[in-house]
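Subject: complex prediction, re-run

Hi both,

The earlier run crashed halfway through, so I resubmitted it with identical inputs.
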Amino acid sequence: MTSPGSALFAVLARYVDADRLESIVAPTVADLQYEVQHTGNPWRRRLALARGYVALGRVLLWHGLLWRSSMRSALTVVLLGVAGAALLVETFSVTTIGPAQISPFFLMTVLTPLVMRLVAGVNTRRRMFVNCAAVGAVMSVVFFGWFAIVKNPGHSPWYAYLPGLLFVLGCVALASAIIAMVTASPEPADARNVRGTLLDVIASAAAFVMCYSLIGLLRHHPAGGFGVLATVSWSVFLGFFFVLVALVIYLPVLVLSRRALHRRSRAPLAVVGAFLFPIPMLAFPLLQGRLDAITRLLLHDPVALASAAFPYLLAGALLGWLIAAPRHEVRRAVL
Amino acid sequence: MAQSPPPRLSDKERLILELLVEHGDLYGLQLVAASRRRLKRGSVYVTLSRMVEKGFVESEPGPRAPGETGLPRPLYRPTALGKRVLRAWTTLARALAWNQETS
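This time it finished cleanly. Structure:
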């Protein structure tokens, strides 16, 4: 029979650096084993075991031993996944608007590659794909678990949720593949050396989201938390579309414009960006067949028109400005 | 020639040195027990590890009873530097207390 804690110690030996393993983890596990061996009463033995594992947990988590180890990537995935699932639970609890409910997925689509690159140093396509897919999988599984056990208990057997979960996991895998293709770069990834066009897009999308949220909150004066959450959820949702449209359509236009104009011609590119980005806003009412009515409504309310267009103008201008800047200035602006 | 700064001693480090000087060589768990809850099981080895790096204490695997299995428990003892730092710290603390009383 093996001593208690030895299996955990063998796992930790793979991840914690040798000095800390020898000086901190090994004595903590040795104390656990000593106490369990020298306690006769079975209940006291269980208590000693529990106290030993609590002490080990404190050493690993409270004192950040794992955080400094190569398990940092796995911990980041779990933290992001659980945070995303908590956001999903929150949005499903307070709103029935579909896009607002699933907006945490869009937020994580933008946040995960950035965090994985900055915190865990993920810089290859394969690792980026695996990590993004893992974050989405943690989010999906935790969320479906909450939905089946807490939100909808006894409504359907657990396997009734499997098709839905598999569909979401398929979407996560596809999105992760796209993210990995776009964001992974073999360049060293630390806070001082983050490059990539995606950061320009994300910086302008973040400006859009902040601006949209602030204008929405100031204009609508929400009475309770629901209004705040719905406004922020919508801004994240639209920000995601902003990123998609920017990546697929306007970024190539802006990059080509940079070459055609001049590398350092910031103002012209900012103007091009500002005029390009309100266009997708018109696509929504056009597809819904309500463009005419909404145009008339906005033209009768100049303040509404200005506040609706401003976030797009600002974010587009910022993107054009950042694209025109030399790389080191982009880094300074973003970080 | 530039002088190196004097060694710093935190409250927990001072407590551990006092316990080791008073009781002799001790295991981590014995330090926790002797400290009357001022040291915690989850943090005592973090402090001890720092003290070993500073050269205040040293450790060696403790003796094992026949049939005992598992990882060896380290036994800690103060080094000459650790004892000197504790003496200096105690003298300084007393001097400061005496100054406060007389001023």
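The radius of gyration of chain A is 25 Å.

- K.
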